[in-house]
Automatic annotation (TrEMBL):
Keywords: Hydrolase
Organism: Candidatus Enterococcus willemsii
Classification via SUPFAM superfamilies: HAD-like
GO molecular function per UniProt: hydrolase activity
Stored InterPro entries: Cof, HAD-like_sf, HAD-SF_hydro_IIB, HAD_sf
Protein known as: Hydrolase
Hydrolase recorded as keyword: yes
Pfam families linked to this entry: Hydrolase_3
Domain of life (superkingdom): Bacteria
Lineage: Bacteria, Bacillati, Bacillota, Bacilli, Lactobacillales
Length: 261
């Protein structure tokens, strides 16, 4: 195993990415400097591996905690691969359809949706990503790692959580959507598994950058938890350091203040 100086985890949207869903030249330079200093850089995101790999193809990043901790890869090697039981998926799809909400099913390499509504269109526009193809029976043909439910009806969140409380964990990650994973899975759980498998659990130089509610859990397992200036107040309260906005070189500023760069 490589003897890393430290590990830095980055959320994507609202953190490493700008409003165009791209990595800025400043952040590209930061990633280059971290690699030169022998830091392992890891994406920690609710996004799928195929999206992460496309976004990071111009960088030295080959490690990620994806699909909210369900699928973990380090330097190209798969370390963690948690799937959702097919029967549970079928029940979620049926319950969500009663509420009028579409659900997409994610594998590491592809995703499909059972139908498309306005919330779906708004979310993928926000992410600057293409709409998924429609295939209501995709989950019967593939092993599914994460579900993604589209809804602007916040009041329905509690109904879903109550119905599947013993089986699944839900993350409201935008005004239009909720990620759904196995019970107690999270970015935190994926990071813990990564650090344990690489024997890095006692490493002091561990950092996490984030801006959303699903980033709070990963703050609990690193020594330095950095909230972006654009993060909500709950995220800032959970952080050990608050930096500038993601559009104002917040990552570079924090790493300099923390004496990493």
């Amino acid at each position: 195993m490589k003897n890393y100086q430290g590990v830095v985890f980055f959320d994507l949207d609202g953190t490493l990415l700008n409003k165009q869903s791209q990595i800025s030249s400043s952040n590209l330079n930061v990633l280059k400097q971290l690699a030169e200093k022998n830091y392992l850089t890891v994406i920690a995101s609710g996004r799928s591996p195929i999206e992460i790999e496309e976004i990071t193809k111009a960088t030295a990043i080959h490690s990620y905690v994806s699909l909210n901790g369900q699928y973990v890869v380090v330097e190209g090697e798969i370390l963690v691969n948690h799937r959702i039981d097919t029967a549970i998926i079928e029940n979620v799809l049926a319950f969500a359809e009663e509420l009028g909400h579409p659900v997409s099913c994610y594998t590491p390499k592809e995703y499909r949706i059972n139908f498309i509504d306005e919330a779906t269109k708004k979310l993928y526009k926000l992410d600057n990503a293409p709409l998924p193809e429609i295939d209501p029976f995709f989950y019967t043909k593939k092993e599914i790692n994460m579900l993604y439910l589209f809804s602007e009806e916040i009041a329905h969140d509690a109904l879903l959580m109550e119905q599947f409380n013993d089986q699944l964990t839900f993350y409201r990650d935008s005004p239009f959507s909720m990620a759904i994973v196995n019970k107690n899975r999270s970015k935190k759980a994926g990071i813990v598994e990564l650090l344990e498998k690489l024997n890095l659990s006692d490493l002091n130089q561990t950092y996490a950058f984030g801006d959303g509610n699903n980033d709070i859990s990963m703050f609990e397992v690193v020594r330095h938890a950095v909230a972006m200036g654009n993060a909500n107040e709950h995220v800032k309260e959970a952080a050990t350091f608050i930096t500038h906005d993601h559009e104002a070189d917040g990552i570079e500023y924090a790493l300099k203040q923390l004496n990493v760069l």
